[in-house]
Structures are given as C-alpha cells and as structure tokens.
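Entry 14. Structure prediction run on the chain below.
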Amino acid sequence: MHRLLFLFSFLMASPSVIMAQDTTWLRVANAEIEKLGVQNDEVFTFYSAAERIQFLNELSAALVEKGFITATWSVENTFNDTSIAVLIPGKRIYWATLDVGSTDDFILSGAGYRKKDIDGKVFSHQALLSMMRSMLTFAESNGYPFATVALKDINWFDTSIAATLNFKKNLFIEFDTIRVIGNLQLNANYLLQYTGIKPGDVYNQQLLNDLDSRLKAIPFATRSRATQVEFSGNRATVLVYLDEKQSSTFDFLIGVLPNNEI
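Output returned:
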C-alpha cells in the first residue's frame, strides 16, 4: 500500500543567512507503520534533502526488520519547492521453515537456536544474521575456527520464505604451544597458567580475543607487536611478542613469587 509523504519547502531568511527548510507531512494509513512510532499527519522538519533521504531510508530499514523486506521509497513528483515521495512497504514476509540441514545439535544449542522461534514467525534479516554469527562464535570457541555458514535452497513464495542452513564445521583444531618471541625470560608454565592456553586443549577463540590486553597488564613485560596464530594441520601455535620491561618490578616479583610461577 502506498504511503504519501507531502514534502513542502520554503525559505527562511535572516539578515545575513538564507537557509532552505523542508517541512514534511507524513501520511500513515498502515497500522504496521504506526507501530514504528510514526503517527498519522505527524510533521517533520528537515534542513537538507540529504537529511530527508536519510529519514526515508531509516524508515524503510525499520520496515524491513518488521518483515516488509521489499520496503522502498521513491520520489514521483517534484514541482517548484514541493516534492511528493511514495513509501512502498510491500507484503509482510514470514518464515515458512528454516531447515537446519546436517548441522549438529551441539552447534545449534550453543547458538541458542530454537525451531519454534523461527518457523512461522516474521522474517527478520538482522535476527537471522545474529543467529548465524552466534553459530560461528560458538564454533570458534569449541575447536572450529574455520567454520562457515550460509543459506541455500532459498524459496520465496508470496508472503513466506523457506531456506536450508548450510553449516560446515571444517577442520577441528587444538592448541599446540604458546611461544614467546622476544627477550623476556619467562617460565612456560607461568604463561600457560596466565593465558589459559594449554597444549592439547580445544581451540578457543575467546581466549585469544582479549589476549593482547591481558599481556599488556603483565607489569614486567612489554609487547612489541600483536599476537599471531600459526596453524599447522589441526594444531594452532600462539606467538606472543614480549620483551622485558626495564624496571625494578620484575626483580620484586622474582623475590615474592614461588619458583614454579615464573
């Protein structure tokens, strides 16, 4: 159903500045659009065509997230200082079904997938992307840093959409070692305990995400560059670049920590 936006422009002058100002009357006849918080005959004021375009784009994007995935707008008439824009929501689209294919329950459960939250519900592009990102994040934290996910066999009917989830775990990875590159003399056991990265453990991207900030907090070390990860077969070696910080802090720690800690 078409929505008419009557765009009236006029000039507002001051002794030294002449500024164009557009006042927009937004006509709302569709209850679904009213749910976006826009009221019928609400008046909007814009100070540039770019500002008005941004508003219309944001309104269309909000409609997309409510299931009107073909929502768009266009300017159909322009005369003098007045433009008429038409907002076209299109039809609301629902999930017919999302087939999870061969994706195992471990990944689905870890990502928070529930069939009842999707099948028959309003299609949301952002919700779909969020679920797919959650699947990848969970996989990366449980030994599958090279996992991929996509949709296939997409079928779009009049007001519904069906698709199959194509999730691949790919190679299973374990941590090998964590190596120090630099002049810092550090007992390997200390680094293992401090980072939580131990040989033979399942690869966990979460341990790596904040590793550099944690290494930066070591008072007797300074980082020379960002941490790197090298993959060989199904093993991952973590390379940390640490040099000794020139201060008395390290000597103090040597005196107070047990021998097996450093």
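Residues 1-21 have pLDDT under 50 and may be disordered.
Filed with the rest of this week's runs.
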